[in-house]
């Protein structure tokens, strides 16, 4: 059973990468998302330091300032990620229908959905802030209470990530508001629950193997350089490791978004994207009538 699951996961990965090969410009969007996210974080570095200093001086407004800044960060990062993920989903949708969306066309579409992206980002930032508040409560609590709060925070965080998997495709395909998009995401998730787990196991496993294949030799060289006193080379190797991690993360994040779109396409229209096959898509919905976390 495990062997079959891994085989299917490898097949899903290959088919998803074939979509990326057809539309090479897809890689632009997660790269831009990472770039603008980095700019946002750097732009907020100074106020973050100031707030940290205020914490040390015991300033009474620290809590309010901290949560306000974190909301701004969460909102900004969510907005950037959602905007460019919308670009990915739109491009994949066009490709699945035999069309080729240009970057200019894609950006225009994303801009046309800016109100939905903003609303979704506000909701995401609010949830993130509530989870952070719960985490702070868990840290202040002692004993079993703190442990239970940590567990609750973890469960809520994972649950939120799961039920919102198909939110962006729902906004792109159906022009839904955030709440309706979440409902649609859960509806699709009920049908694709088994395949969604296979996807995360499969892509996650392959991503881990790719990371290990590159990191092991890179880290060995880095440690060897440091132990030999070649600190400049060691510093260069650390930079290479960071770049390698970023590249792998970007590629597999893109792959996840593409396969999400393929599943949503099939669930919404019944059409099998030509880049995939009937077995992959139909197997994704074999779990529909089985009892599970989201069964009605």
Characterize the structure shown.
By secondary structure, this protein is mainly alpha-helical. The chain has one domain (2-283). The protein contains eleven helices and no strands. The protein has helices spanning 2-22, 28-43, 45-57, 62-96, 103-112, 114-140, 143-163, 167-174, 178-227, 231-269, 278-283. Helix 1 packs across helix 9 (178-227), helix 1 (2-22) crosses helix 10 and helix 9 (178-227) runs antiparallel to helix 10. Mean pLDDT is 83; it is low at 287-296.
Which features would summarize this protein structure in a list?
296 residues, mainly alpha, disordered C terminus
Task: Provide a compact summary of the structure.
The chain is mainly alpha-helical. The chain contains eleven helices and no strands.
- Helix % is over 70%
Q: What does the main sheet amount to?
A: none
* Integer tally of domains: 1
Write down the overall mean pLDDT.
83
Please mark out the parts with pLDDT under 50 across 5 or more consecutive residues, or reply none.
Answer: 287-296
H/E topology pattern? HHHHHHHHHHH
What structural class do you assign from the helix and strand content? mainly alpha
The Rg value, from CA coordinates, equals 21 Å
């Amino acid at each position: 059973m495990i062997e079959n699951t891994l085989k299917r996961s490898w097949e899903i990965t290959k088919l998803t990468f074939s979509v990326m090969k057809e539309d090479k410009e897809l890689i632009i969007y997660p790269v831009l998302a990472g770039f603008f996210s980095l700019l946002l974080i750097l732009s907020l570095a100074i106020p973050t330091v100031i707030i940290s200093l205020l914490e040390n001086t015991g300033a009474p407004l620290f809590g309010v300032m901290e949560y306000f800044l974190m909301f701004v960060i969460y909102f900004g990062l969510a907005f950037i990620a959602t905007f460019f993920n919308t670009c990915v989903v739109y491009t994949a949708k066009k490709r699945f229908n035999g069309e080729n969306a240009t970057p200019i066309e894609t950006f225009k579409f994303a801009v046309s959905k800016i109100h939905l992206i903003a609303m979704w980002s506000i909701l995401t930032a609010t949830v993130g802030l509530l989870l952070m508040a719960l985490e702070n409560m868990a840290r202040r609590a002692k004993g079993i209470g703190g442990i239970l709060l940590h567990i609750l925070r973890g469960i809520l965080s994972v649950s939120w990530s799961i039920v919102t998997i198909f939110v962006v495709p729902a906004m792109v395909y159906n022009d839904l508001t955030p709440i309706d998009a979440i409902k649609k995401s859960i509806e699709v998730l009920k049908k694709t629950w088994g395949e969604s787990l296979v996807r995360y196991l499969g892509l996650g496993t392959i991503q881990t193997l790719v990371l290990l294949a590159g990191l092991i030799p890179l880290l060995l060289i880095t440690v060897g350089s440091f132990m030999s006193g070649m600190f400049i080379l060691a510093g260069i190797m650390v930079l290479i490791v960071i770049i390698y991690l970023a590249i792998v993360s970007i590629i597999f994040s893109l792959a996840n978004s593409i396969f999400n779109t393929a599943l949503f396409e099939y669930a919404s229209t019944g059409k099998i994207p030509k880049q995939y096959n009937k077995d992959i898509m139909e197997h994704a919905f074999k779990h529909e009538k089985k009892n599970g976390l989201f069964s009605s």
